[in-house]
Each structure stands twice: as C-alpha cells, then as structure tokens.
Amino acid sequence: MGVRGVRGAITVEVDTREEIVSSTKWLLEEMVSKNEIAAEDIASIIITTTEDVSATFPAQAARLLEGDGWQYVPLMCAREIPVPGGLPMCVRVMMHVNTDKQAKDIQHVFLRDAVKLRPDLTNR
C-alpha cells in the first residue's frame, strides 16, 4: 500500500469562524466520500488559507466529522503564499492517504470558486 495525495479547495463567503469551519467540513466530507477514505487511512492533512481567511483554524472542522478515528488524524494549518492575483478567500487541503488506488483514480475536490484552480481536475 502506498501514500497518495488528495487535493481539495473551497472558497469561503465571509471570514467568520462558522463559515470557515462549515465550508472546510463540507470539503473534507466530499474528499473522503468521493475517494472512499476511512479516517484510519489518513496519514496527515495539511490545510492552508489565504491571508484574508483568519477568523479561526480550519482544522477544527475535522473534529466535527463523524466516524471513528478522526481524533487521531494529524492536522496542520499554514498560510498560503500571497501571490498577486491569486484566488482570494480560499481554504486548500492536501490529504495524505494510505491507499492502493492509482494516482489517476484519485478524485480531487474543488468547490465554489475554487474550481478555477484546477479545471482540468474538476471536469473528470
């Protein structure tokens, strides 16, 4: 069994704790659902935010997910590189998963305006 990265991103409407947590929770739910991932198979998750998303740590969303094992998933939040012209109000996720799936079989998830980041992956 190898480790694969599952990418995901979502934009938030406003910089509030409730919006950041609920949006990140939705994104994580979609990522695990589309890829049939169990929490025990997640090696780690790195979550980044753009500079305009700062009301809370989006990793708090993982603690709200149902199912055994989420309390053991290592999580880290970081700041996205502030590239001029980059997509604002964005939460990005890189989930490292123990899986036998091939890279081409991983379903990356981009929600709301984040579909602009990788249209080649969202139209599969």
Automatic annotation (TrEMBL):
SUPFAM superfamilies assigned to the protein according to its UniProt record, in alphabetical order: YjgF-like (SSF55298)
Domain of life from the UniProt record: Bacteria
Residues annotated to bind prephenate = 7, 92
- Keyword annotations from UniProtKB, A to Z: Amino-acid biosynthesis, Aromatic amino acid biosynthesis, Isomerase
Q: Might you give the EC number(s) for this enzyme?
A: 5.4.99.5
GO biological process terms on file: amino acid biosynthetic process; aromatic amino acid family biosynthetic process; chorismate metabolic process
Top EC class for this record:
isomerase
Q: InterPro entries per the record?
A: Chorismate_mutase_AroH (IPR008243), RutC-like_sf (IPR035959)
Q: Which residues form a coiled coil?
A: none
A Pfam family that the UniProt record links to this protein: CM_1
**Could you give a GO molecular-function term held by this entry?**
chorismate mutase activity
Q: According to its UniProt record, which reaction does this protein catalyse?
A: chorismate = prephenate
Q: Which PANTHER family is this protein grouped with?
A: CHORISMATE MUTASE, CHORISMATE MUTASE AROH
Give the protein's recorded name.
chorismate mutase
Query: Which source organism does the UniProt entry give?
Result: Brevibacillus nitrificans
Q: Which gene encodes it?
A: aroH
